[in-house]
């Protein structure tokens, strides 16, 4: 098994990325807010994975091309929007733990910028690199869910397990289930369109839905 195996190499890259994140957090945390750190960190992630994509991914020319949405893209976009709206409605109105918003340190403008950059970085990482690299040499056509989609979804899920440390258990569970549905859906769109345009747009939109339903908490926290 070589280091460039289509399952091993993404795993190594993923582990190296998180190994780099720890000292970065320890170095910058005393000086900047969490949202500012997210902007710096995810900007570095974007730079790193644009390089990795240019170096290791075939047929990358289509990644940032606009593709006309087909019926399945529109349907999945609509379903994800409704699911995120429903989950965030209940989360915003019935949760007793809002620590995930970090209202003491958050300024809304920084928060919006942070999740926009974060959404883009995550799609480059999970769909642009992990899914694409894993699918190279593996047939995608005819499969509902490609191996790359499933592999990227595993990493995407693991990255969000921390929900249980900042949310009520019931909402952490529903949010994690939504993470899986989201990842499989945008991964499917990535495979069918060969583009990251729609996955990035859908990711940003779903995170903006989160902001919309928690607007009142930002107002109450005085961080607008």
From TrEMBL:
UniProt-listed InterPro entries: Rce1/LyrA-like_dom
GO annotation terms (biological process): CAAX-box protein maturation; proteolysis
Keywords assigned by UniProt, alphabetized: Hydrolase, Membrane, Protease, Transmembrane, Transmembrane helix
Thylakoid as UniProt keyword: no
Membrane-spanning intervals of the chain: 7-27, 39-57, 69-87, 107-126, 147-164, 170-189, 196-215
Location of the CAAX prenyl protease 2/Lysostaphin resistance protein A-like domain: 107-209
Record GO terms (molecular function): endopeptidase activity
Name of this protein: CPBP family glutamic-type intramembrane protease
